[in-house]
Design goal:
This protein has 411 residues and is an alpha/beta fold. The chain is built from 13 helices and 20 strands.
Amino acid sequence: MTSVFCKSEVDSLKKVIVHYPDDGIEVVTPSNALEYLYDDIVHLQTMREEHQKFIDILSAFIGEENVLDTEDLLLEVFETIDEKNREKFFKYLFAQERLTDEVREKIKSLSNKDLVYTLFTGLLEETDTSILTPLPNYVFTRDIAVMIKDHLLICNPSKKARNREGVLTRVICYFHPLFKSCQENNDEKIIDMTEAGEDCTIEGGDVMIFHDNYLLIGCSERTTPEAIESLKNKLFEKGVIDNVVRIVIPKDRSCMHIDTLFTQISKDEFVIYENTLKSNLIKVTQFNKDGTSKEFSTLESFFLSANPAMKFILCGHGIYPYDEREQWTDGCNLVALRDGVAIAYDRNAKTAEALYEQGYEIVSGRDIAKQWNFGDFNPDKYEKTIITIPSTELSRARGGPHCMTFPILRV
């Protein structure tokens, strides 16, 4: 088995990449929040405490050694990369950033540890001064890259505030041994959308593998038709997937990616916003590798055509105004640890009621984290379970558990 491989959203998670909220988040202010894609400023310490509970749950189920942080991965790259490729990295980085010669030289002179800190936070650790823009959205590692079976998709962010995310993701994906199986044979298993042009923007929240041989791609405010067409053609040429399904959603802040509207929690169940499920305004087209295509009147009709046993659990229990409120606070955005076991935010009470009525046990993540920290936890006993995590500050950053994970191995 390769070290990186994912053929579904619900196979057992074995290895995942996250990003612990870094000091750069405190650079976000009321006056620049929208520029950095935040609707509000967050309290960093509380956000970190909430994220740590998330990491604890992941670690309890798959092992601490399999929950990897981007800062550690980037540091490992810089500790091993040769001088030629290091210089190539700086050249690529500086082409994306408007910096004075003095700042460029300062960045190049930093130790590896300090360099990684600065690249993520924008700050010089020794003086706490800002020399680069921060990357407050990197906590949502789902958007940076996606494993599509044994192929690695490096995403191309649509917003200027996230450009350096693409730079850092590229160096990790091209040089870290974790992705060795994708790096071999002239990178034929890396699909790098950062090289596809400005019109080809795509983010991982719009990309989901469904039912082994369907790739769902949202056409949204962040992912363009050009990117979908380019990725579709590459995947078909390489024989990676049989069907690509384009799902056109409103270009609206409340639904920036398809994973803000639905996520899969078992092989036969989605948590979904009802307006999305039945709306004829959501345009769905299935493209087949043989060149044929098919239109569907609703998202529901597509899902049932692919899997007649599919069930839909409604965000906010499908009751207004709770459905709209809880969709906004990522009630649809869950991440499966395995078939029928998923992590959700604790604040979405009506969605939890709907899940409970469908036979799910609702378990506090705090309790699981406590058991795990005391060495008294058995992950194998959990079936049809939703694990809730504290989310006061995490949800204000406009992303959920699905957004905060880049799964690289599911089996």
